[in-house]
Write a structure and sequence with these properties.
homodimer, alpha+beta, Arc Repressor Mutant, subunit A, 2 domains, three-stranded mixed beta sheet, 5 helices, 21% strand, DNA-binding
Chain lengths: 128, 128
DNA sequence: TATAATCTGATAATGATTACTATTATTGTT
DNA sequence: AACAATAATAGTAATCATTATCAGATTATA
């Protein structure tokens, strides 16, 4: 992987915006500092960074991927009303990979958990 | 939800094919028995059935959803080589929802775990 | 059986993502 | 510093899964 200004800026943007943005959102967020960047470049680099384990790619139910810089392993809670993504700490599922290995014999490289429900904000809104 | 022949046949097809098929695959599998069914109908009904909890919708990493009839709660292992989906028993993650609730306060309605790795078949193929 | 509600097939439209291509930037080497 | 080799970019066209639309058919209900 060769250095590029664009990739650096994309990563920087991700670091500064812990909102689990979509590719399109990253693109918008960068526009002011790098007006000529192409959407395709954003996609290309986000995927590249995810493949190399630098960032995390999260599949939403609405068919738009989201990206996350956070390095410590953790899981996600996706609000079924507003599609916002919240972090869930890793230790809610201790022994998980060990159990899978023991019970199925499958060798797991990675693991993603998506919890779904209505987030506190949306629950408030429903009440009012 | 009103009865329809098409929906019944879609569900039947899913019951008889525990291969976690995509919508397109369900469509092909049905073609012989119901040659005039429309792909849109397959999509419409699969989503409807999933929304009503009759079947399960699984998000793959390659951007094509897969569907599963199995009623007992369980998780999935997706092979990163061939994209085949395997079942993983529910009890690999005991206390999961309780832990989330306790540690985050979030109310979880559902939860999906996707394990990723290379399946035994593909590991064999790599060796040869 | 008449009415309303829901469903269907066919196809157009959408929207996220990827492929393509000519050009430009980065890197290692004389 | 100049050179070639490699990889990256911008812009846009193409792809592909999925959804929307809509006229006509089916199903449920009164």
């Amino acid at each position: 992987m060769k250095y590029s200004k664009q990739r650096e800026q994309i990563l920087e943007t991700l670091k500064n915006n812990c909102i689990h943005p979509t590719a399109e959102q990253v693109y918008s967020l960068m526009k002011s500092q790098m007006p000529n960047i192409s959407l395709a470049t954003v996609y290309r680099n986000l995927n590249q960074l995810a493949e190399n384990g630098v960032i995390l790619k999260i599949d939403s139910l609405d068919g738009t991927a989201r990206f996350d810089y956070c390095r410590e392993q953790h899981y996600h809670f996706i609000c079924t009303k507003c599609n916002k993504v919240y972090d869930v700490p890793h230790n809610v599922a201790p022994e998980l990979l060990k159990n899978v290995q023991e019970q199925t014999g499958l060798t797991v490289d990675s693991c993603e958990i998506s919890f779904r429900g209505i987030c506190p904000d949306c629950q408030q809104n429903i009440k009012h």
